[in-house]
Amino acid sequence: MITLQDVDAVITPYKSQPMLSPGDASNLSYKLIELLMEGSCEREVLRALSSLFSTDTYEQLVQERVINHHCGYPLCGVVDPQKIYHKVQKNPLVAKLKLPGAYKTSYCTQQHYQGSEFYKKQLSPEAIWARTDVVNLDVNPKDQYYTFLLEDVLDNSDRVPRNSMDTLQQSLDELRLSVTQQSGVDHNDIKIKEHDASEL
Ligand SMILES: [Zn+2]
């Protein structure tokens, strides 16, 4: 299991710099992908890395995992060469289209596809070197991160502020819709657990 300490070891050499150069940023992204492209990581790792991943970097990570026959979701340890494989699409235009059911060869389950998309939606499209606000390379667990995992939402975790629940349910509904469209079959709703009245 990949831990925050492993991530910290990768990041430490870059910590002394006030701002990352484009070259350093791309090296760092490459090293993070290398660290996470096999096996599974702790939830804390994904939360903490949300400030260092751009959408593109995360997509590259998912692709590397799939090439290695790992479920694309970094929290998952499933390796299944029969089911998970990289489909080589020679036509770059076709490759950009989301073909029906394409996610099934990249993830072990529909929920992991949704978890991965849910996470990706919260990432910044900007490359890390272009961000002036983020060179906070501290990965020690803080009181809270601003990124939530699908698992946090489904567990109704205290990390997720109550007032975000409606927006999050909406994101989940959109993801469910995209799965339905991709597979052509209706699936069970993913619903956030009702909060027990006694806890309120
Ligand atoms: Zn999985």
UniProtKB/TrEMBL annotation:
- Recorded E.C. number(s)? 3.1.3.16
UniProt xrefs under InterPro entries? Rtr1/RPAP2 (IPR039693), Rtr1/RPAP2_dom (IPR007308), Rtr1/RPAP2_sf (IPR038534)
Of the GO CC terms on this record, one is: nucleus
Q: Which residues form the RTR1-type domain?
A: 48-132
**A GO molecular-function descriptor:** zinc ion binding
Catalytic activity field? O-phospho-L-threonyl-[protein] + H2O = L-threonyl-[protein] + phosphate; O-phospho-L-seryl-[protein] + H2O = L-seryl-[protein] + phosphate
User: Which cell locations does it reside in?
Assistant: Nucleus
Protein keywords: Hydrolase, Metal-binding, Nucleus, Protein phosphatase, Zinc, Zinc-finger
Q: Which Pfam families match?
A: RPAP2_Rtr1
What does this protein's UniProt record list under function? Putative RNA polymerase II subunit B1 C-terminal domain (CTD) phosphatase involved in RNA polymerase II transcription regulation.
Name the family: Belongs to the RPAP2 family.
| PANTHER family hit by this protein | RNA POLYMERASE II SUBUNIT B1 CTD PHOSPHATASE RPAP2-RELATED
Q: What is this protein called?
A: RNA polymerase II subunit B1 CTD phosphatase RPAP2 homolog
